[in-house]
Every structure is written in structure tokens, then in C-alpha cells.
Design goal:
The complex is a heterodimer of chains A (about 500) and B (about 250). Chain A is of the alpha/beta class. Chain A has one domain. Chain A is built from twelve helices and 23 strands. In chain A, a hairpin with a 2-residue loop joins strand 3 and strand 4. The radius of gyration of chain A is 21 Å and the shape is globular. With about 250 residues, chain B is α/β, with parallel strands linked by helices. Chain B has a single domain, classed as P-loop containing nucleotide triphosphate hydrolases (Rossmann fold, 3-Layer(aba) Sandwich), CATH 3.40.50.300. Classes of the chains: A alpha/beta (about 500), B alpha/beta (about 250). The interface between A and B is medium-sized, with 22 and 33 residues. The complex binds adenosine-5'-triphosphate and magnesium ion (MG).
Chain lengths: ~500, ~250
Amino acid sequence: MPAVQETIDQVRSIDVDQYKYGFETEVEMEKAPKGLSEDVIRFISAKKGEPEWMLQWRLDAYKRWLTMREPNWARVSYDKIDYNDIYYYAAPKNNPAPKSLDEVDPEILKTYEKLGIPLREQEILAGVEPQNRVAVDAVFDSVSVATTFKEELAKAGVIFMPISEAIREYPDLVRQYLGSVVPVTDNYFATLNSAVFTDGSFVYIPPGVRCPMELSTYFRINEKNTGQFERTLIIADKGSYVSYLEGCTAPKRDENQLHAAVVELVALDDAEIKYSTVQNWYPGDAQGRGGIYNFVTKRGDCRGRNSVITWTQVETGSAITWKYPSCILRGDNSRGEFYSIAVSNGMQQVDSGTKMIHLGKNTTSRIISKGIAAGKSDNTYRGLVSAHRKATGARNFTNCDSLLIGNQCGAHTVPYIESKNASAVFEHEATTSKISEDQMFYCQQRGLSEEEATALIVNGFVKDVLQQLPMEFAVEAQKLISISLEGSVG
Amino acid sequence: MLEIKNLVVQIEDKRILNGLNLTVNNGEIAAIMGPNGSGKSTLSYVIAGKEDYEVLDGEILLDGQNVLEMEPDERAAAGIFLAFQYPLEIPGVASMTFLKAALNAQRKARGEEELTTPDFIKRVNAAAQQLEIPKDMLKRALNVGFSGGEKKRMEILQMALLQPTFCILDETDSGLDIDALRIVSEGVNALRSPDRSFLVITHYQRLLNHIVPDTVHVMSSGRIVKSGGKELALELEANGYADYRTSEAA
Ligand SMILES: Nc1ncnc2c1ncn2[C@@H]1O[C@H](COP(=O)(O)OP(=O)(O)OP(=O)(O)O)[C@@H](O)[C@H]1O
Ligand SMILES: [Mg+2]
């Protein structure tokens, strides 16, 4: 994806501040009335042309949500969210929905171009090896505005479309799996999402199919005072393979915006899902004003024998991150992996980690977490590894490293280990290191600038995780990390 | 040529250099000796540009350029190199990666082309061989878990690779075994050239047997109190610093 790199360089050279994606797009929007009520949920459901069962599902979730309390166990603090001061649906005015890219508002196409996400298939094809192509689903506030390579994927039997479309076109598939990994009642934010989710991606890979290209969804919050509640559902049928990448950005604003997503993955026998995230929501300014509250629930179910789910995340954005991509290792011999780089700078707060729930026999999991804290930020790793009574032979390896840049940031590691099977073997390693002024001077004495020295040390620190990303994204992620840490030294 | 004129430096309200004067000509090897705490390392840090040191008076000129106005990395690109008394560990960064980044950063700052990887590897291997540094050490994180002597050798490897014009060796001999002392000295001697000068800080004559200085300066209480030829070092070795300490009160 050469465009990505160019865009980063370009945007980098224009913008004075650190966040490079903070521009706004002027398009006319259609919104639901502000606030949350049954009417608003009916409005969303009607907008999406949903079947009755879906509406009922949402309303049940809403009723449940009203009885729940916002969690407060994470090591983050923020002013109380007024859930009635948010728009739950905002979509570019463009009815009926665009059928092809030519019908998409040129302003929106320009937005994605500026972000380095080419949506025109011809442009993607230019100079890209067929095996390196990426199909993109572009979600703009509450709706998907474009999905590329749909036909070509369909030839392989792969379904890749906005979830709102899948609910209409593949209701049985959606109904069978939706909420089967993250139950409607799972947690406050997941329940809220179940009531009001607007769009997201749906992926189904049929038995024995290796998805012919990377799939990706690019989420963009544009509208003010709008929450983004996306829902993604990926099903890898027996013996199939898919690699999926998610990216996200938002304009700079003084108010906080809520992003409460739910992602569910299901891997059946011998299937493998690789799910990568490069999260770069607006982090707020140096005083901690504005930024996205990123409260998401991501969970994968290794439902089949020998199935594999890998989460790789590079988290650089958001004012607050509350996120624990997890694996339920249900199938015997299944494997879960979590590779994470969480960078925090300024006043950002990160509470992130994973859960590896070993239920099946000989299940294995691996956790590699690299937290980098700079500025006045706070960076917590929170991870649970558990073995069920029947999880004979379960194994986990956890490595959890923190790097501190400067004296005003904090890094914390909170591991939870629960084993109900005596044969389970869990290993845990953790380190905390700091780039000291003396190390910085040493590097500078050899000719490196502070930025170059920081980038060098940080790259060394995160390389094990970057290796897990598809190549093009690894390059992008590496740049993103150094941009996020700009101005963190000295 | 490096000229230091009337340098006065303090740290946390404690004055450490008290009007220090010193000139090192191109191609010259100058040795500095002096009691513990007399300010030798401080001088090397101030030349290299370490923060925290407050320069109250004086100047440092490298070929006429005002060094004190430059950032540490600019000084490095201008040719100043400091082999640290206590080299720092850089976790997660392979020595090889570090060396390449440093070399290319300096070349870039000087407006030169970056080295190609094969070209770079050739140079590192040549330098490593001369200093008898095994290749697998270059794959390890820089200085992490290296022995004291290995760290010192790695400093000289960096110097050989970066080809600076003004080299400061701060007690490079401490921690070296007899063979390593010879190897490192040979490495330094191989870098001697008419347009490269050295400031060699040491406590012992044994290093100066290998790296023979043109001039020897005695530092005490943040000042050069005596300068002479290489025989001055032998005299110090025999008599110690007693004669010079008395001048502190003045
Ligand atoms: N950060 C600091 N705060 C206070 N005093 C300091 C600081 N750094 C150095 N000093 C003092 O400055 C003086 C000179 O130290 P320096 O390291 O330059 O001595 P040196 O000549 O290199 O000694 P040695 O031969 O033991 O290496 C010492 O008394 C030391 O304690
Ligand atoms: Mg010293």
C-alpha cells in the first residue's frame, strides 16, 4: 500500500500538531434525534431496513442495559458520560445508499484518500502485486460508504460486506452467530452496542477456503457529538483462513466522543483468523481535552478443534482505551495469540490486555504485550489466563514489557491467573525499563537526534509484535508509533 | 584543533571546572591525568554536550566553531567522539543496528549519502576483526550484558567506524585485561592521523606505553595545573599528585 506511506509523509509535513488525521469532512448528515430511547433504536433499525427479530434483539439489549452500571474497575478516570447527549446515528445524506463508488460523495472519497485508504479498485491495483491487495470496507460514522473487491471475493465464496447488509441478505448466518461470542448481556458497553450498533463488517469464509486477499475495515468518526458503535462479525468455517485488519481515525475536537464497538470472531475446526488493529483515534490535546473514549469488547471463539485466533494490536490513539481482545479456547488443541503494542503519550490513559480462557484439552496461548508510556500518560496491562477443570495440558506463555519515556508517566501490570487443572502450565515474564537521560545522551553522542534515538529504542522494544503484522501495515504502524511519540523526549 | 579557553562549569551549584585552558592540535595525542574527582569526566561530558552542566564562562572551539552552541548530535556529526568511562546499555537494539543508525545519522547531518548495507557490513566486519570482537556480539543488544572490557572494546569499534576528528577516551584502559589493552591500543594507534586528535584520560602509565602521547596535562580541582611532554606521566607515576594538590588552595 504505497499510498499509506506517502500520505503519512504528506500529512506529517503539513500538520504542526502530532495528530495527523484531525481534519473534518464537510458533508450533509442525517442524524437520529439526540439521546437514547426505544424510538431512537426503532429509528436506527428502520434506517437499516432490518427484520423484526433484529429490532427485538436491540430492544431487549436496551432494556437490559437500563438495569446495568458502568464498570469502574479499570485504571482510568473520566467525567461521567451523559448518554443522552450523544447522537447514536449519523450518516451522510445520500439516499438511496450508493450502489457503486461513482455514487459515493466525492468529499468522502477525498477523506479516505487523505487518510491513505484508496477505495477505487483501479487505484489499489496500480503497482500492487495481486497477493498484496487489500479489500476495504469503509465505515463513515454510522454507515458503511464503500466496500471494495466484493465481486472478486464472492467468486471465492467469501462474504465481505457491511453487517447491515448481511442482516438483510444472510439473516440466518447472522442470526446463528451474532451474540454467540459476546452475549448481549456481557458488559455495559457491549450491551449498549447491541442496542444501538450501526455498522461494521461481516465476513464469512466458507469451508476450506483461504481468503484470497487481506480484508480490512477503516472506521472514521467524522460527525460531532456522535458515538460510534460498530459491530463486526467474522466467521471462519472449517479449514479456512482469513487475515483481517482494522484501522481508525477521527477529527480533533474538544469534546470527548464515545466509541463502543463489539467484535466477534468464530473459528471452526482447523480454521485460522488473524485480526490486526491499528488504532489511531484522536487522543486529545496536551491538556487532555477531547479525544475518543475507546471502550470496546473484542472476543474470539476457537470453537473448533485445532483452530487458531491471533489478535495483533497497535494502539496509539484514544484519550482512554479500555480493551481486552480475548480468546475462548474451546476446541481441543486450539491456540490463541495476543500481540500488543500500546503507546500512550500526553494525557492518554490505556487499560488494555487480553483474556485467554482455556476450556479444551491441549489448548495453548501466547501473550506478548509491549506498553510504551510517555508524557503524563498512564499505561496498564491487564490480563487474565485461566484453565478450566477439563483443560488438561493447557499452556500459556505471557511476556509483558513496559517502557517508560520521561518521569511523569506510569506503567502497571495486572495479571490474573486462575487454574483449575493441575496439568496446566502458565509462564509469566514481565519487565519495566526506562529510557534514561544518560542513554539518550549516549545515543546523541553517537550522532542520533533525540527523535531518532527514541525511534531506535522503541523499534527495538516492539519488533517482536510488529513482525506479526502484514508487512505493509508493519511499516505504517512503525511510523505511527514514532509520530505518536514525537515531542515525548527532552 | 580543539581550543578550550577559561572554562568554568558547575553542576547543581557545585563548581567543578574553574577556568580550564587547554589546546589540542590536529594530529596530537594529549593525555590528561589527575586525581579522582578532579573533573576529567566532567570536562569530557561538557565537550560532548551533556545536559545538566551549566557553563558559566569560557568557550570551546573545534576548528574555530563554537561547540557550546551545538546539540550533542551536531557535535558528533562535527567530529567529536567520546568513549565513555561507563558505556550505557541500549536494550532491544542490536549493536549492528545501532552502529548503522549512528553512522547514517552522521552522514546525513553532513549531507553525505547513506551507506549501503553491504558496504556498511564490510566496514563493521573489518573493524570488529581488528578489535577481535566476535561477530555474534554485534547481534546482541548494544552493551547489554557485555563485560566491562567488552563494553570498552565496543566503544573503540564505534570510534573506528565513525571516524571522528576529535576523540576523547575516558579511562578506556580500566577494565581491560592485558591482551585487550594491547588490542585496543593498536586500534587507537591505527586511527592516528595528521587530522585527528585525541584526548586520552587515564590514571596509569601502562596505557601511555601503548598509546604514546605528545603532551601530558595534569588536572586538579577543575584546572590544568601542569603541562609537559610524555615524561611528565612517568614523573607522576613515580611521585603521585602530592605536588599538585597543594595548588588547590590557591
Ligand atoms: N551530578 C552531580 N552532582 C554533584 N556533583 C557531581 C555531579 N557529577 C559530578 N559531580 C562531582 O564533580 C566532581 C568531578 O567529577 P568527575 O567525574 O568529572 O571526576 P573525574 O576526574 O572524572 O574522576 P575519576 O578519576 O574518579 O573518574 C566530583 O567531585 C563529582 O562528585
Ligand atoms: Mg572520570
